Amino acid sequence: MTESNSQNNQRALKTIYIIRHGETDLNKRGIVQGRGMNTDLNETGRMQGEAFYQMYKNVPFDKLYTSTLKRTHQTVQHFIDDGIPWIQYAGLDELAWGVFEGQESTEDTRSAFRAMMKSWKDGDLQLKFDQGESPLDVKERQLEILENLIEKNDDKTILICMHGRAMRLFLCLLTDEPLYNMDKFPHQNTTLYKVEYDGTRFTIVEFNNTDHLKNLQTKKKSEQD
C-alpha cells in the first residue's frame, strides 16, 4: 500500500456532512429564530431539502442527526423516510437568542445584535441576551455531540442537520478554531460543510457547498422571467 493510499484510508475513517436547515418564513423576513422558535419550512425550504436529497440520496449514510426543532427534521425528511437511523440531539439546537426571538427587525434590535457580535468577536464569549445563551453555553452542550461522533459509535458516514449560528460554533469546535472566529464559516439555507475525521483531527473538505441549489436557482429565475 502506498503512503498516499494509506493516508486516504486513514482520512476516510469518518465522513460527516453538516447542513443548515431549509428556509422558513422567519428566515425570509429576516426575523431571528433561535432555540425557542419551532418553525416550519416554507415552500422554498422544502424545495431546498428536496434538492439536497436528490444530489446526496445515494451517499451511504449510517446515521442521521438533527436538532430537536422540526425545521431540521423537515429538511431531511426524505432521508428519514428512507429508513436511515435518526437521532435528535438537543445539543444541535440553535443558540437561544432570548428576548429577541420572533421579534420584528428594528434599528434598536439590529444595533443590539451588532454590539453583541462585536463583543463575541472581541472574545467576550460569555455574553448573552436576556433569557438567551452565550457561545460558551452552546459549546458546552455540543461537546456531547463531539463525544458521540468520535467515541461512542463506529458509523463511517453521518449526516447532521442543524442551525446557522450553532453550526458555526460546531465547526469551530470540530476544527479547534477559537469560537470568536465563528463568522469565518459563512452559510445559507441547506449549505453543506463536508468534514473528514482521521482518528485525530477533523478537516473540512467541502466549504459552504451549495451546488445542490444551482438547478433550484435556475428554476426560480426561469419562473420569474
Automatic annotation (TrEMBL):
CDD domains: HP_PGM_like (cd07067). Substrate binds at R20, H21, G22, E23, T24, D25, L26, N27, R71. PANTHER family: FRUCTOSE-2,6-BISPHOSPHATASE TIGAR. It comes from the Bacteria. This is Histidine phosphatase family protein. One of its GO terms (molecular function) is fructose-2,6-bisphosphate 2-phosphatase activity. SMART domains: PGAM. The keyword Ribosomal protein does not apply. The active site is at H21, E94. The keyword Hydrolase applies. GO terms for biological process: negative regulation of glycolytic process; regulation of pentose-phosphate shunt. The lineage of its organism: Bacteria, Pseudomonadati, Bacteroidota, Sphingobacteriia, Sphingobacteriales. Keywords: Hydrolase. GO terms for cellular component: cytosol.
